[in-house]
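Write out structure tokens for TonB C-terminal domain-containing protein.
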Amino acid sequence: PPPPPAAARVSRASAARYLGGGLVDADNAGGRFAGSVGVRFTVLPNGRTGNCRVTRSSGNPGLDGTTCNLLQQRLRFVPATNDDGQAVASEVGSVYTWGRTPGRPR
């Protein structure tokens, strides 16, 4: 019998681009929180992110939620492609670290 067909190769999503400003002040309650948030999300064929979930909490639910919200609202990727060069969804995992804004109350 002939060998089974090879699994389709899929490239990885790359080149994240951040859209917008005011990350710390507007979205981190005035820059008061710090910590690292581990997340996993889907890069969709259109380069947007979706299905964000926290895999390692910072210990602050607000910071965890803000991280996923920002990823979905403001990051754009060059999507992964299949052997035919068509954009496909892919999974990405990363850790995002927040710092306090200097001079802000803790």
